[in-house]
Specification:
The chain has 489 residues and is mainly α. It has helices at residues 12-18, 20-36, 38-54, 62-74, 108-141, 148-157, 160-177, 179-182, 187-192, 214-219, 254-290, 292-306, 310-321, 325-328, 333-360, 363-370, 375-411, 423-430, 440-467, 477-483, and strands at residues 198-203, 208-213, 235-236, 242-243. Belongs to the binding-protein-dependent transport system permease family.
Length: 489
């Protein structure tokens, strides 16, 4: 441990000012990595601001117009891992030889594969750089030589099942984050507005270069199982467009659909978790601190919600609010966020209630009260850090369930409305063709949903065992009771 007395500890910014070299080195590396994707980062920020601006008045919004203009300008900012720098669209004159319009004249599937590999390498480099930053923080800026967090990190590093889940979760996050660049084509061109975009192909019969709308090309590239109408995984269609996962029933690219759908599912899941977990965290600390009537009222409210099946409530709410202004916000995504936030907070509260009640009876809480600390300060400084670990465990286990629920509602045509991509919608469209040559339409999304849910569950198990080593392998009832939201101390 450091010899520096606790009452002489300086704020982090002062420690960095006293020894700025490690922080500046890390910041410089982060700036270089960020600069490689500057155009994409600026574009995402502007798109988020534009979405918020459009949720305002229905009248013409000058802020939205300004942001739209800024978005067009941001599209011109160089981005290393972009479709424009590593293109996979092109044509092959005469049907043989080098390709025109692709990266280095490579075959489209290889150009696309290079871009995908580079994107995932870039993401894992960022992950490694964050780890370097954490190590430098421990070495140069943290007073304590050891904290309980170090043991948590070390246990998680040795937890193979948790690491497997982390890799799956990270793969899903990267797919959602880099969806515009990962797809062999764009959502706007191939899915949302196919008749306003064009694609070039070489016509072998006339030996000329032809130009056709993407919508027309999609109609000639459908996968409907019978009569030779199928474009399977890792193949080209008649217009020499490469499809890593094949096409769906209307000829649109399945991989592009899946990548964009991952972004929609992740956004709904994360927002629902943040809102629901925020409500549960506040209520868990309030009820644990004040007990009595506050705890009783929350128990009644949470039990009333938990008595109903979540999916059934979501189906009912989706049906009731369909066609309303709420269902039209972001093609139904906002409605699903509200539904899952209001239906999942009781589960989070139940998971946090036991740990919150337990910590509220500890001696240091009584000491803080005797020193005159305000309840809000006690909850924030002494109770919240204790329950945060349990919140992380339950959040990782719940996010996969929300993704399945979103897919299920979309499968029933009650979730995200077309043309916005969602995994459940494409599974429903491909169900009649499961036993045909177009099996990929439903099977690939189904496998991906299964892997994502397994990944979140495995990662949650890893976090649980890292935070509470006695629960590893299910050998301790204490960890399981906390997760299940057991009673108080």
């Amino acid at each position: 441990m450091s010899d520096t007395p606790l009452d002489e500890e300086k704020p982090l910014r002062e420690r960095i000012a006293a020894n700025p070299r490690p922080a500046l080195k890390w910041l410089l590396g982060a700036v270089v990595l960020l600069a490689l994707e500057l155009g994409a980062v600026v574009g995402v920020v502007i798109k988020l601001l534009l979405t918020v601006a459009r949720l305002g008045p229905l009248a013409p919004n000058p802020v939205a117009a300004a942001l739209a203009s800024a978005g067009e300008a941001a599209a011109g900012i160089p981005t290393l891992l972009s479709r424009s720098l590593i293109p996979n669209d092109g044509f092959q004159p005469g049907g043989t030889g080098a390709w025109t319009g692709t990266f280095l004249g490579l075959e489209p599937k290889y150009a696309w594969l290079i871009r995908v590999v580079l994107i995932y390498v870039y993401a894992f480099v960022w992950l490694g750089w964050f780890w370097v930053g954490y190590r430098w923080f421990r070495e140069h800026y943290r007073y304590a030589d050891w904290t309980p967090r170090d043991d948590v990190v070390d246990r998680l590093r040795g937890h193979r099942w948790g690491q497997f889940g982390f890799v799956l979760v990270l793969t899903f996050f990267i797919m959602a984050l880099f969806a515009p660049a990962l797809g062999p084509t764009t959502v706007d061109a191939n899915i949302q507005n196919p008749y306003t975009h064009y694609t070039e192909y070489y016509d072998d019969e006339t030996e000329t270069l032809q130009n056709v709308t993407v919508g027309t090309a999609n109609l000639g590239s459908t996968s409907q199982g019978a009569g030779g109408q199928n474009v399977g995984p890792w193949t080209y269609d008649d217009y020499k467009r490469f499809h890593p996962f094949g096409t769906i029933t209307n000829g649109k690219d399945l991989f592009t659909y899946m990548a964009a759908g991952a972004r929609v599912s992740l956004m709904i899941g994360l927002v629902s978790l943040i809102v629901g977990a925020g409500i549960a965290s506040i209520l868990s600390m309030l009820t644990a601190y004040y007990k009595g009537l506050a705890d009783l009222a929350t128990v009644v409210a949470s039990d009333s919600i938990q008595a109903l099946p979540v999916l059934l409530v979501a189906i009912l709410a989706s049906a009731v609010f369909s066609g309303t202004w709420l269902a039209n916000l972001y093609n139904g995504a906002v409605m699903l966020m509200v539904i899952f936030s209001l239906t999942y907070w009781p589960f989070f509260w139940r998971a946090l209630r036991g740990p919150a009640l337990q910590v509220s009876e500890e001696e240091w809480i009584d000491a803080a009260k005797s020193f005159g600390q305000r309840p809000r300060t006690i909850m924030r400084k002494h109770m919240l850090p204790y329950v945060t670990g349990y919140l992380l465990i339950y959040a990782s286990l719940t996010l996969g369930g929300i993704i399945i629920s979103v897919a299920g509602l979309s499968y029933l045509s009650l979730g995200i409305t077309p043309p916005t991509p969602e995994w459940g919608t494409v599974i429903a469209s491909g169900q009649p063709y499961v036993a045909t040559a177009s099996w990929h339409i439903s099977l690939i999304p189904g496998i991906m949903i299964t892997l994502i849910v397994v990944g979140f569950n495995a990662f949650g198990d890893g976090i649980r065992d890292a935070l509470d080593p006695e629960s590893e392998g299910g050998g301790s009832d204490g960890g399981e009771a906390a997760i299940a939201g057991g009673g108080g101390a």
